[in-house]
Design brief:
By secondary structure, the chain is an alpha/beta fold. 25% of the residues lie in helices and 32% in strands. It is built from 6 helices and 14 strands. It has helices at 3-8, 44-48, 50-64, 81-93, 144-155, 199-202; strands spanning 11-14, 22-31, 36-42, 73-76, 106-108, 111-112, 118-119, 132-140, 159-168, 172-173, 176-183, 192-193, 209-212, 215-218. The strands form 3 sheets. Strands 1, 2, 3, 12, 13 and 14 form a 6-stranded mixed β-sheet that branches. The mean pLDDT is 95.
């Protein structure tokens, strides 16, 4: 399997609420750190292209309106800092309430230590402690990474007001609502499996790539 083979099978999908926002998807047999899936979802353009990130931020703002009232900090996962910066600006322009003294939204990302635990250094804790936080992710499948992020933010004294994502198979984690641009319903036949119950593995169909919110690695 080569990169070109995956790229050549990509299909473009349009967001229901904003056709200017698109992602690419490729059907196959892929593995995330927590599960096996039958689609690789490429959200790179929404993370690295300024105009597309700005449009996606506007759509996410619309989903948060009248659902989340106070946002002080956006915690970015999966390399979503560009999108997070635009989302912060959109929330400021929409007059979301904030408690920050400087009347601007913090955009930060957690560090991952050697034990694969999220953490914030002392200089960044001021963006979490006592703050109303929105978590921003690229893709959510099982929710394990998001749960880890929520625990980290709670540990540092933040209050999570919601989770935003480009793509998510879930609409809620515990009592925390997820606001996503795309869901599994937008990708025909999308499915996720545990490694032990994967029908592709049962048929001896090899994995094509390891994938996560950053991209994919050919096996």
């Amino acid at each position: 399997m080569t990169k070109d083979e995956i790229e050549n099978r990509m299909v473009k999908f349009y967001a229901k609420d904003d056709p200017a926002v698109t992602i690419n998807g490729c059907q196959g047999h892929f593995a995330t750190p927590q599960s096996h899936i039958n689609y690789y979802i490429d959200v790179t353009r929404l993370k690295v292209r300024v105009d597309e990130a700005e449009e996606a931020a506007k759509s996410l703002k619309s989903k948060l309106l009248n659902r989340v009232s106070t946002v002080d900090t956006i915690v970015c996962l999966d390399g979503t800092e560009v999108l997070g910066a635009f989302l912060g600006r959109e929330l400021e322009k929409a007059d979301f309430h904030m408690t920050n003294t400087h009347e601007t939204i913090y955009v930060v990302r957690p560090e991952e230590n050697s034990l694969h635990q999220f953490m914030f250094r002392t200089n960044n804790r001021l963006a979490i402690e006592g703050k109303h936080v929105v978590v921003l992710a690229a893709t959510i499948t099982t929710g394990a990474t998001i749960s880890q992020a929520l625990e980290c933010i709670e540990y540092y004294g933040g209050t999570v007001e919601g989770v935003c994502s480009i793509f998510s198979t879930l609409d809620k984690i515990s009592a925390t609502q997820i606001y996503s641009l795309f869901t599994a319903e937008d990708l025909p036949g999308y499915a996720t499996y545990s490694a032990h119950d994967c029908p592709y593995c049962a048929k001896k169909i090899p994995l094509e790539a390891m994938v996560n919110g950053y991209g994919y690695s050919i096996l």
